[in-house]
Design a protein that fits this description.
By secondary structure, this protein is α/β, with parallel strands linked by helices. It folds into 2 domains: 138 residues, Rossmann fold, CATH 3.40.50; 138 residues, Hypothetical Protein Tm841, Chain: A,domain 3 (2-Layer Sandwich). The chain is built from 11 helices and 14 strands. The strands form 3 sheets. Strands 11-10-9-14-12-13 form a 6-stranded mixed beta sheet, with helices on both faces. Strands 2-1-6-8-7 form a 5-stranded parallel beta sheet, with helices on both faces. β10 and β11 form a beta hairpin. The chain is globular and about 60 Å long. The two termini are 21 Å apart.
């Protein structure tokens, strides 16, 4: 039986955690990123998102940092010592964070210690080393709810070993997931270097509301509209188009659609008008729609008030 390691941006709800833990026989570990608010440092999974949003709105500066290599290495050793005969690691996009590189370095370190194979990328001829027993690192090419969907793909193939499980997770990351979101302001993305100063100024000056997407692991513009209501509708329209495109792929005919609507602070009656508008539009499109609170690491970059929708095809 193999084990699974996730970084802390993959926020699992109770039902997700139960399904994934059962698939991996309880061998699931989480490695935290770090969020620093002004001079106060927090582990991602232990920081209340509402506190982060409140402090950011009050003018505090939020920064994030990837886990140490040793944090991943310790989690890998723990799973192997617990009887796992291989390990899958799923991280947020390598384009967004150095977390993937840290996990890959840790995999190589532990593999050398234990005399097993580690793999982050396919070999020269597409053959992966260590397929019978090994450590495989998956770049999710996304974050938050998108990575949760990829974890479910890994869970569906957990019984079939590192090679098959890893292939399923990588295919899901590359083909079966799409994320669209609407920031309340471009300021936080600008501060974090995700967009340029000119783009942020242009958006403020013309009162443009952008719809952004995670494309090949990067934050890219999907549309620009004039009102928040239009942005909510457009985000879901873009997600519908993404699902339609996924449906054309070989093997996708019998897969079902799951959608998750995300918000940094709450998913109840106190959530933003934007969140509620996206949720209502999503529920009008798909039967299987849930909600999720964003990781504080993701919130530190998209900012308070943002909301989005992630869609995936699942077995």
């Amino acid at each position: 039986m193999i084990g699974l390691i996730l970084d802390s941006t993959v926020r699992l709800c109770d039902s997700d955690r139960e399904v994934i833990a059962e698939a991996f026989a309880g061998r699931v570990r989480t490695v935290d990123l770090t969020v620093t608010i002004d001079d106060d440092e927090f582990r991602d999974s232990q920081l209340d998102p509402s506190e982060l949003c409140s402090r950011m709105r009050g003018g505090s500066t939020a920064r994030t940092s990837m886990p140490a290599v040793e944090d991943f290495a310790a989690a890998i050793r723990e799973l192997l010592d617990d009887g796992a005969d291989g390990v899958i690691i799923i991280t947020l996009s390598a384009e967004m964070s150095g977390t993937y590189k840290a996990a890959t370095a840790a995999a190589a370190q532990v593999a050398q210690e234990r005399g097993i194979e580690a793999d982050g990328d396919a070999g020269a001829e597409g053959v992966r080393p260590g397929e019978a027993v090994g450590i495989r690192v998956i770049d999710s090419r996304t974050a938050s709810a998108g990575s949760v969907g990829i974890a479910h793909w890994a869970a569906a193939y957990a019984q079939q070993g590192v090679a098959v499980c890893g292939d399923a997770a990588e295919k899901a990351a590359a083909q079966y997931s799409a994320t669209f979101f609407v920031p309340e302001t471009l300021e936080y993305l600008h501060r974090g270097g995700r967009i340029g100063g000119a783009a942020a100024l242009f958006g403020r000056a013309l009162k443009i509301v952008p719809v952004l997407q995670v494309d090949e692991g990067r934050v890219e513009p999907a549309a620009r509209v004039r009102t928040t209501a239009k942005a909510a509708r457009r985000a879901v329209d873009e997600a519908v188009a993404a699902v339609d495109a996924m449906r054309t792929l070989d093997g996708a005919e019998n897969l079902r659609v799951q959608a998750t609507v995300m918000h940094p602070e709450a998913t109840d009656g106190e959530a933003s008008t934007l969140f509620r508008a996206i949720l209502e539009a999503a529920q009008a499109q798909w039967d299987d729609v849930d909600t999720a609170v964003l990781s504080t690491v993701v919130t530190a970059h998209v900012g308070p008030g943002a909301a989005g929708v992630e869609v995936r095809l699942v077995p």
